Amino acid sequence: MFDPAQLARIRARLIEKKVTGPCPRCAHPEFVVLDRVANPSLYDDLEDPTFSSITIPSIVTACSRCGFLSLHAIGTLGFLVNGKIVI
Predict the structure, then answer these.
(1) d(CA 38, CA 73)
(2) Nearest one of 1, 5, 6, 15 to 79, comparing CA atoms
(3) What is the pLDDT of residue 47?
């Protein structure tokens, strides 16, 4: 779980990267940063998508009105250093 200081750094970085537009589903302007990391998998084999060693650690935001979720790659946000999450 992220502590309040980490959540503030994440929110500031998203704003710095201009992730400030309204929700693409309901146009609400406010979002929250969830306090956990998502780790979606990418699959090489569509015939057998049961295992993947390729994941993208991600920050998750949710629309404050409709709950629409969006993922933001931790590495692109600059929070991945030598394979470790540093926020």
Answers:
(1) 9
(2) 6
(3) 76
Say whether 81 sits in a helix, a strand or coil.
Answer: strand
In terms of Cα–Cα distance, which of 61, 63, 67 is closest to 23? Answer: 63
* pTM for the predicted model, two decimal places: 0.84
Burial code (b: 16+ CB inside 10 Å, e: under 16) for 38-72 equals: eeeeeeeeeeeeeeeeeebbbbbbebeeeeeeeeb
Give the containing element (helix H, strand E) for 80. Answer: strand 80-81
Confidence of residue 70 (pLDDT cuts 50, 70, 90): very high
Residues 42, 64: contact at Cβ < 8 Å? no
Q: E strand or H helix at 16, and its extent?
A: helix 4-16
Question: Terminal CA-to-CA distance of the chain, rounded, Å?
Answer: 11
